[in-house]
Amino acid sequence: MNDIRIRNATLEDAKQILDIYAYYVEHTAITFEYDVPTLANFQNRMENIMQRYPYLVIEKEGEIQGYAYAGPFKERDAYDWSCETTIYLDPAVQKCGLGRKLYKELEKRLQDMGILNLYACIAYPVVEDKYLNKNSAEFHAHLGFKKAGTFHQCGYKFGHWYDMVWMEKIIGLHEKEQPSVKF
Predict the structure, then answer these.
(1) 1 falls in which pLDDT band (50, 70, 90)?
(2) Domains and CATH numbers, the chain
(3) Helical ranges in the chain per DSSP H
(4) φ, ψ for residue 182 (rounded to 5)?
């Protein structure tokens, strides 16, 4: 059976979501976080995001396989039409199409809210190593994101310096009289 479902995350999902994220903290430079957050801290992060933005999980046969969410690009009113997007998949299900499905649903929900600009902050290796490859940037490029900028050697993890790239995707029209975002 290949039952795939995307739904809103709940705080009850936090443990399973944190388990996915913990892999990336402990074994990769995809996140520049050094320590796995506590469950309470992670639930607090989720709760803050869910007050204004979508926070989604993708399930396959009832098991959470990944999650994606949006958050503020910057904390100023003029940035309301822009947001930062994040996605993490269980490493066992990467390159199976679940990430594309999940991100497309996130994009649709953001577009329905009136969001116009999507941004992704992505750790990027000068030279690929066992902690970081270019897969995330390539994934975003396949979904229509374009590179907007590079911060050189701004993240240090596992004894290596890594770049960070910003990628962007415009998903709506920028009007002279722009309707408010529906948070």
Answers:
(1) very low
(2) 4-170 (3.40.630.30)
(3) 14-27, 39-50, 98-113, 135-142
(4) -95, 85
CA distance 163 to 147: 13
Helix (H) or strand (E) holding 156: strand 146-157
CA distance 1 to 58: 15
Assess contact for 99 and 87: CB atoms under 8 A.
yes
Q: What is the torsional sign of CA 55, 70, 76, 44? A: positive
Residues 98-148: pLDDT tens digits? Answer: 999 999 999 999 999 999 999 999 999 999 999 999 999 999 999 999 999
Q: Phi/psi of residue 90, each to 5°?
A: -55, 130
For 58, phi then psi, to 5°, come to -115, 130
Query: Of 127, 136, 86, 79, whose CA–CA distance to 106 is shortest?
Result: 86
- Of the chain, the end-to-end C-alpha distance in Å amounts to 36
- Confirm if 168 and 148 have CB atoms less than 8 A apart: yes
Which residue in the block uniquely carries the two structure tokens 């795939």? 4
Instruction: Residue 124: name the closest of 167, 82, 94 by CA.
Output: 167
Distance of CA 88 to the CA centre of its chain: 6
Report the distance separating Cα 183 and Cα 178, nearest Å: 15
The structure's pTM equals 0.95
